[in-house]
From TrEMBL:
CDD domains: PGDH. Keywords: Oxidoreductase. This is Alcohol dehydrogenase. SUPFAM superfamilies: GroES-like, NAD(P)-binding Rossmann-fold domains. One of its GO terms (molecular function) is oxidoreductase activity, acting on the CH-CH group of donors, NAD or NADP as acceptor. SMART domains: PKS_ER (SM00829). It comes from the Eukaryota. The keyword Oxidoreductase applies.
C-alpha cells in the first residue's frame, strides 16, 4: 500500500483566553506515513487511533508553562495495534493511554500503555473516563444518607459521579449551565438539579445544606460559596478548576478559614496517580456496568480530526454534552 495521509492536530500558538480553532489548534495534513514499511526497530508498535478524549485540562497544556511544542500531546485515547515489533503487544490489541492527536502513531514508550479487555460490548470511546471512579473510591467515600453537590455534573466525569453517588444512597445536588443538560441529570437520578447560570447557587445550597461532599470541577467563586454550606467533617474532592482555564486572572478561592472551622478534608486528585492502584478494579467493574445499562453515558462525538479544534473550544465553553470524543474508527 502506498503511504497514506496521517492527519494530526497541531498546537500553533498560545491562546489568549479561549482557544481559537485554526489559530491556536489546527488540523494538519502535511504528514504521510508508510504503514507497511515504517521502521519499528527497537520494540516499537504502530497503531491506528480509534478514539480521542477531549479533556478540558488540555487547555492548561497550552499556556506556555511547558516547553512549547508544535504537537499537542496528552489526550487520553484508544488505538488498535496494526504492526508490532514488541512481544507484549500483538496485532489487533486495543490499547489505552496518553497519545498524540493523530490518525496513526508509533509508540516507543510502551510501558505507559494498557491493553484493554476484548469484547466488552461497549464502544471503545467510552473507555477513557476513570477519574470519577478513582476519586470516588479514593477520596469521596460517600455514605448512605449523605448529601453531595456535583458541579459540571452533566459532563464526562460529573455524570458518572452522580450515578455512583445515587447507587451509594446519597442525596445528589447537580448543576450544569444549559437547560438541555438538566433533563439528562434528572434521568440519571439526581435529586436536585439547577442551572448555575440562571439560578442562585447560594439559594439552592441554603435549601439543601449541609453538604457532606463537594465534587469540585470549577474552583474560584463557586468553591468559595460551597465552603460556606459544608457540613462538619465534610470532604471537598478537587478534580478540576475550569473557571480558571481560559482567563488571564482567575478568581481566587476565598473562605479558606472554613476548612478549619468545619474540619474539612480538601484533597486534589490526578487520575494518572491512581492507575496502578485502581486500574484493574475499574476495568473489572465499570465497563460491565455500562454494558448492562447500570451506568448511563452521554457523548458528543465528531468523526474527524478536522473538527477537533472546534470541539476543544466547545468543551471549554460548555457546548458539549457528556464526554467529548473524536471517534476516527469504530474498530
Ligand atoms: N484531576 C484529573 O485527573 C482530571 C481528569 C479529568 C477531568 N478533570 C477535570 O474535571 C472537570 C470535568 O471534566 P470533564 O472531562 O468531565 O469535562 P466536561 O464536564 O464534560 O466539560 C467541561 C464542562 O465544564 C463546564 N464549564 C465550563 N466553564 C465553566 C465555568 N466557568 N464554570 C462552571 N462550569 C463551567 C461546562 O459545562 P456546563 O454546561 O455545566 O457549564 C463544560 O461542558 C474539568 O474541570 C477537568 O479539567 C480532571
Amino acid at each position: 500500500m502506498p503511504p497514506v495521509l496521517n492527519t494530526r492536530v497541531i498546537f500553533k500558538s498560545i491562546p489568549q483566553g479561549y482557544p481559537v480553532p485554526g489559530q491556536t489548534l489546527a488540523a494538519d495534513h502535511s504528514q504521510k506515513i508508510d504503514l507497511d514499511n515504517v521502521s519499528l526497530a527497537g520494540g516499537k508498535i504502530l497503531a491506528k487511533t480509534l478514539s480521542i478524549s477531549i479533556d478540558p485540562y488540555l487547555r492548561g497544556k497550552m499556556n506556555g508553562t511547558e516547553k512549547m511544542s508544535f504537537e499537542i500531546g496528552h489526550p487520553h485515547a484508544v488505538a488498535k495495534v496494526i504492526r508490532s515489533e514488541n512481544p507484549k503487544f500483538k496485532v489487533g490489541d486495543h490499547i489505552y493511554g496518553i497519545m498524540d492527536w493523530a490518525e496513526y502513531q508509533i509508540f516507543e514508550n510502551v510501558p505507559e500503555l494498557r491493553i484493554l479487555p476484548p469484547n466488552s460490548g461497549i464502544p471503545w470511546s467510552v473507555f477513557p473516563g476513570k477519574t470519577a471512579y478513582y476519586a470516588w473510591q479514593e477520596v469521596a467515600q460517600g455514605k448512605e444518607g449523605e448529601t453531595i453537590y456535583v458541579s459540571t455534573a452533566a459532563g464526562a466525569v460529573g455524570s458518572v459521579v452522580v450515578q455512583l453517588a445515587k447507587q451509594a444512597g446519597l442525596k445528589v445536588i447537580a448543576s450544569a449551565g444549559h437547560e438541555s443538560k438538566l433533563q439528562f441529570l434528572r434521568d440519571l437520578g439526581a435529586d436536585v438539579v439547577f442551572n448555575y447560570k440562571t439560578e442562585s447557587m447560594e439559594n439552592v445550597l441554603k435549601d439543601h445544606e449541609p453538604i457532606d461532599i463537594y465534587w469540585d470541577h470549577v474552583g474560584g467563586k463557586t468553591t468559595s460559596t460551597v465552603l460556606m454550606h459544608m457540613n462538619t467533617f465534610g470532604r471537598v474532592v478537587v478534580i478540576g478548576q475550569i473557571s480558571t482555564y481560559n482567563v488571564a486572572e482567575a478568581d481566587a478561592v476565598s473562605n479558606f478559614p472554613q476548612i478549619l472551622f468545619r474540619r474539612l478534608t480538601v484533597r486534589g486528585l490526578g487520575v494518572i496517580d491512581h492507575e496502578a492502584k485502581h486500574g484493574d478494579e475499574f476495568y473489572a467493574t465499570i465497563p460491565g456496568m455500562i454494558a448492562r445499562g447500570e451506568l448511563k453515558y452521554n457523548e458528543t462525538i465528531v468523526r474527524s480530526l478536522d473538527e477537533a479544534p472546534q470541539l476543544f473550544l466547545d468543551v471549554q465553553k460548555g457546548d458539549n454534552s457528556g464526554k467529548a470524543v473524536i471517534v476516527l474508527a469504530d474498530d
